[in-house]
Amino acid sequence: xxxxxxxxxxxxxxxxxxxxxxxxxxxxxxxxxxxxxxxxxxxxxxxxxxxxxxxxxxxxxxxxxxxxxxxxxxxxxxxxxxxxxxxxxxxxxxxxxxxxxxxxxxxxxxxxxxxxxxxxxxxxxxxxxxxxxxxxxxxxxxxxxxxxxxxxxxxxxxxxxxxxxxxxxxxxxxxxxxxxxxxxxxxxxxxxxxxxxxxxxxxxxxxxxxxxxxxxxxxxxxxxxxxxxxxxxxxxxxxxxxxxxxxxxxxxxxxxxxxxxxxxxxxxxxxxxxxxxxxxxxxxxxxxxxxxxxxxxxxxxxxxxxxxxxxxxxxxxxxxxxxxxxxxxxxxxxxxxxxxxxxxxxxxxxxxxxxxxxxxxxxxxxxxxxxxxxxxxxxxxxxxxxxxxxxxxxxxxxxxxxxxxxxxxxxxxxxxxxxxxxxxxxxxxxxxxxxxxxxxxxxxxxxxxxxxxxxxxxxxxxxxxxxxxxxxx
Length: 473
Fold this sequence. Notes:
With 473 residues, the protein is an alpha/beta fold. It is built from 14 helices and 19 strands. It has a 7-stranded parallel sheet, with helices on both faces. Helix 2 links the parallel strand 4 (69-72) and strand 5. The chain is globular.
């Protein structure tokens, strides 16, 4: 079959695409920005990439007519727009209008379990999207999942941060809320096995793991898997705002995402039973099994996708990568340094491993201090790290930077700053003729931006000099 996958650069989309290809399907990836598409797609005869923005109907003509199945995987947990519900519904209606013109027989939508009368605004939005996708021109299959557990998922990483950092937790009462966590492996099985399966046409299924657990039980079971002794004390006085700050400062999540998670975590998520497990022959893993499987992927350094690589992990980039790949010069301050390299390939490998666990090669204490200051002022700090220890691709999060361009053959890496700044900043590494060229560019915003640049200039001289020498050696 020919299958269109929207949200192809997202957490689920990036994992689903290779699975569909391995099953013999031809996959068309719909992305807002081709620069973010996995480079391996470009050389795969079974994958095509089209650039589509579902908020811009004129771009939808890129979607081919001859498609059989479509996955709708577009949604946001931390859109900072006050009108995000209307935007998500508009995306769905634009999508539906275009897909109805094609030969598609089935649309598969991944939503959230919505069995409570008091829904969070994000679950309410997903319910509205489900209604908007209903059509007489194609069959709609809806899977509603609760907490998804897998390497790189937001829930997994947040729980991991809490468990590994806090021996004793003073936690809000919503930790007693019940849910049914589901392994990401099982989510992918439901999605992939339903393609073209007429038993799933025009039906909605709650999909969930075999256990009903509270968030507190999830934390304690996670600790058991990691052989950690943890104690949790729940208090009734922690307001939603305080709960959001608690998650924000302890974990790698953004404040906006933390706020929306707290909003959702107060709602019990228990799935309605159905025969979908038998229809698709899926036997969901237990929570502990899902956690163990996630750590196997982490230890093998084979995390396919991470929520941190989504724009929602920072919210700083508002438009296409094309707007950031050409580094500005007018009205900008620059710190340019160059150094002869001993071995260009070795230096490239060092550059490709920069940040995260590796660090920044020089002045790591100062980098960490800058990360702490960023967190205090509402930024993301350094705690996102990086998804892969040695590989890097456009769109990846890298501490408080975003990878705008990464080409190992051309030996060029371009980063865009997502920390709190009175302006915009880029950091570029490029090797030409065995010469490493390192350029920090800052475009200030008003007087505050100029004062900021001059205040950090002495530290730049120390850090950037040391870093280029270490990279070149």
